[in-house]
Amino acid sequence: MTTVELTRFRVRPEQAEELLAARADMLADFATDRAGFRNARLVRLPNDEWLDIVEWETAEDFAASREKGGNLPGIARFFAAIDSLVTAEEGTID
Fold first, then answer.
1. Distance between CA 3 and CA 36 in Å, rounded?
2. Structure pTM?
3. Which residues contact 46 (CB under 8 A, 6 or more apart)?
4. What angle do CA 53, 59, 63 make, to 5 degrees?
5. Angle at 41 between CA 20 and CA 77, to 5 degrees
6. Residue 10 near residue 49 (C-beta atoms within 8 A)
7. Could you list the pLDDT tens digit for every one of the 94 residues in the chain?
8. What is the CATH number of domain 2-93?
9. In what residue span(s) does the ABM domain sit (predicted)?
10. DSSP 8-class letter at 64
11. Burial class (CB in 10 A: 0-12, 13-18, 19+), 56
12. How far apart (Å, rounded) are the C-alpha atoms in residues 40 and 29?
């Protein structure tokens, strides 16, 4: 089963372009540093909120990624553009 990470967060309007600019580097860092990383989609929602949908091969891969946090420059830059966390959930695709 594929594990899905659903993270909803707020970005101040003046940081939205920075978030988007950092996205490619974040994904490149994930691809090289995060075992089990499959895919990610970023959705812009109303009221300065965003939803990041990230697919992992296993729940263990997702847990290991969370422990690493913003350990590489591209990931840290993306995280720095986020103002606040709204929700973080984990699910599976059967």
1. 10
2. 0.94
3. none
4. 85
5. 35
6. yes
7. 899 999 999 999 999 999 999 999 999 999 999 999 999 999 999 999 999 999 999 999 999 999 999 999 999 999 999 999 999 999 999 8
8. 3.30.70.100
9. 6-67
10. H
11. buried
12. 12
